[in-house]
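stage 2 :: seqdesign
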């Protein structure tokens, strides 16, 4: 069985905020928004935490610190910002120190995923960024990943199941998103479907998002 590498763990994913569901009033106001999204991701050679470019092996798992994960996603939103959106982001995860992880039992903390209690826990590096585009107008919304965790189960071989959460901050954008700010969180699940000998991988995911926006 091929062993996982953090280069394909940063998903999503990775998994990527979309926060454009409520109507805009003339005066500044706040709105609570929700969304669902789905997408895919793959490894990219970006070192978000600047911890070097040399690969190391921990518990038979090769880790290359200059690799992160790029995710592309789509969503269908409702409200004044309703319609189709697409977006992309880049993120990176690192192992959480501890014990119990299946492939690194003395160095990586375990987590529970379904009935599996020895899955492996990772945390997101702060500073990953992304953008979402409203297709009807071409307006771009920008965000930054601030924290999060990922739980990866490799006990049954490929495809590897995973689940996790991310938090993010919203930092404006263009057009109708100019001056919009806020924060939110996203929960996701998915599978790693392929991994090459160097540990680079490809994944799919689905997610749910909640955020609070300040709209000028």
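stage 2 :: out
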């Amino acid at each position: 069985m091929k062993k996982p590498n953090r280069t394909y763990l940063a998903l999503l994913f990775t998994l990527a905020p979309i926060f454009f569901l409520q109507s805009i009033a003339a005066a500044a106001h706040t709105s609570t928004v929700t969304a669902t999204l789905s997408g895919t991701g793959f490894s990219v050679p970006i070192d978000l935490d600047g911890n070097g470019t040399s690969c190391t092996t921990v518990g038979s798992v090769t880790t290359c610190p200059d690799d992160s994960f790029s995710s592309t996603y789509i969503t269908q939103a409702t409200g004044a910002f309703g319609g189709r959106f697409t977006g992309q982001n880049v993120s990176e995860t690192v192992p959480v120190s501890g014990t119990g992880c299946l492939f690194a039992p003395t160095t990586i903390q375990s987590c529970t995923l379904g009935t599996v209690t020895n899955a492996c826990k990772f945390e997101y590096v702060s500073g990953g960024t992304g953008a979402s585009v409203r297709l009807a107008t071409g307006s771009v919304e920008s965000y930054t990943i601030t924290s999060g965790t990922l739980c990866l189960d490799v006990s049954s071989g490929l495809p590897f199941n995973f689940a996790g959460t991310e938090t993010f901050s919203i930092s404006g954008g263009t057009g109708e998103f100019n001056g919009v700010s806020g924060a939110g969180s996203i929960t996701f699940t998915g599978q790693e479907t392929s991994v090459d000998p160097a540990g680079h991988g490809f994944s799919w995911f689905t997610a749910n998002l909640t955020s609070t926006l300040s709209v000028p």
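stage 3 :: structure notes
- The first strand starts at residue 29 and ends at 44.
- Residues 5-26 have pLDDT under 50 and may be disordered.
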